[in-house]
Design brief:
The protein starts with a strand and ends with a helix. It folds into two domains: 67 residues, no CATH class; 76 residues, Beta Barrel (OB fold (Dihydrolipoamide Acetyltransferase, E2P)), CATH 2.40.50. The strands form two sheets. The chain has a four-stranded antiparallel sheet with strand order 1-2-3-4, with no helix packed on it. Strand 6 and strand 7 form a beta hairpin. The protein is α+β, with helices and mostly antiparallel strands. It is 44% helix and 26% strand. It contains four helices and seven strands, in the order βααββββββαα.
Length: 161
């Protein structure tokens, strides 16, 4: 791998946009149902009209909160461009809500590097003398970049302190 290198490290728009649309649709449907239903559906009959309206309202509000979360991710994606940076001497990872803070891990302090598979995503755990970080493959541009980073970092654990 050629160093130094800056790699985009953020959630993909095609992942967040459908979630935003789905949450917005559910929120609109539930809030409409809370205010405009004619009769209580049989499954909610035990709640009565006011209970059913409250149930629909809380589902709508919950979906609206999911929509707001997706909107925050879209804002982060559009206005804050986080990068994973690999310099000659250290790995620099963004963290925080909008990923504008950075963790710096000198290659000389890398103790252990291992991979975890969860669902269809891989996570690379990097442990140094003072901290442990996780690199999510889903936040990188593609799997080949993830493999390059993994193949670069794994040999470091045997050569460091």
């Amino acid at each position: 791998m050629k160093l130094p290198r800056k790699i985009p490290y953020h959630i993909k728009t095609q992942t967040v946009a459908p979630g935003f649309l789905i949450c917005a649709g559910i929120a609109a449907a539930m809030l409409r149902a809370a205010t405009h239903f004619q009769e209580v559906p049989p499954i909610l009959a035990g709640l009565g009209p006011k209970g059913a309206a409250a149930f629909y309202f809380f589902l709508g509000v919950g979906s609206a909160l999911g929509c707001a979360g997706c909107l925050l991710f879209l804002i982060q994606r559009c206005f804050f461009r986080p990068y994973l940076e690999m310099t000659q001497d250290e790995l620099v990872l963004p963290y925080g809500l909008f990923r504008h803070h950075f963790i710096r891990i000198p290659y000389s302090t890398v103790r252990h590097v291992w991979e975890i598979q969860s669902s269809s995503q891989a996570f690379l755990k990097v442990s140094s003398n003072t901290q442990q970080v996780t690199i999510a493959s889903g936040l990188l541009p593609n799997q080949s970049v993830y493999r390059e980073i993994r193949d670069f970092l794994v040999p470091l654990e045997s050569s460091s302190g």
